[in-house]
Amino acid sequence: MKVIQEIYPLLAEPKKVVIIMHQKPDADAMGSSLGLGHFLTRLGHQVTVISPTNWADWLKWMPGCQAVIDYEYSQEKANTFLAAAEWVFCLDFNTLARTRSMASKLRKLPAIKILIDHHQQPESEHFAYGISDTLKSSTSEMIYDLIVGSGHADRVDKDIAACLYAGVMSDTGSFRFPGASAGVHRMVAALKDTGLNHTIIHEELFDNFLENRLRFIGYALQSRMDIFYEHNAALISIPWKDLVRYEIRTGDTEGLVNYPLSIQGIKMAALIIDRDEEIKCSFRSKGGFDVNSFARKYFEGGGHFNAAGGRSNDSLEQTVQRFIAAIKENSSQLQ
Ligand code: 5GP
Ligand code: MN
Description:
The chain is α/β, with parallel strands linked by helices. It has helices at 27-42, 75-84, 103-108, 139-149, 158-171, 182-192, 198-206, 211-223, 240-245, 291-299, 316-329; strands at 2-3, 16-20, 46-51, 69-70, 87-91, 112-117, 129-132, 225-228, 233-238, 268-274, 279-285, 302-303, 307-312.
């Protein structure tokens, strides 16, 4: 993989570009993809943004979001753009498996693939150019670096600013995680200078749910949370029937995994959800416990040091038992 700076001189020549993010995109995946999309469009490129799956309603306010293609829903259309693409940017994921049913297609694609990501242990072998930097707060920050680094800081307008702000704010936990560096705050200052209204973005992301989601969170915290004080860990496990009962949709469970970390002494929290099609796991930690390694070792996953995900082919009950065994095994690192 050649360094990303090598594409900067090539940006001047218009190309057919596809931008891809990870499945069930969060605000950073969608924000970085749309932010880059707007920037490349302004430079004269023909840009198509594709998501491997659908996405949460609370992302739909983002400028350009209505034009994003859902690969699962419009596969033929998406494949036409992929076949014609000269450049395919892959944003906010480290392994092709994170693009779900697109992975096999991407592996064979003749287009030049470019990685921009901040997760650990990227599959660099698939990419001609790229940057993987785990010290970066978000992929959105990395898109801002690309725009400024390639000499186009003046191209950052209100739309780009809104997309990138949403991504960096979301991936830094509203600027509380260590990734919220001085550089991140300087970037936000520059985004504000474009006329960005950050208050509206916080409202779109956090104050825009339906009643059922809040009632579901109340129920999950009351009835589905177990605390393992001897291991400083907590687990919320959600059976499929809860998702049906509360009419839970894509994105509604985002953030739920963080609640147990607000309990004194709890250093690691897990959320295990039976999504019917698969068991999805989320892990979060505070301080020195590495959930990236934990997710890799026990749950076919990965991510960041303090935030990672994974999956399981077992039943919900078996997955919960495996989780409990795993935290027992890791109890000394959790003290
Ligand atoms: P979440 O728990 O919000 O799904 O994911 C937390 C972090 O881990 C995100 O940065 C996400 O991209 C990453 N992640 C989630 N699931 C997986 C997975 O199955 N494999 C890998 N490699 N990363 C994941
Ligand atoms: Mn991210």
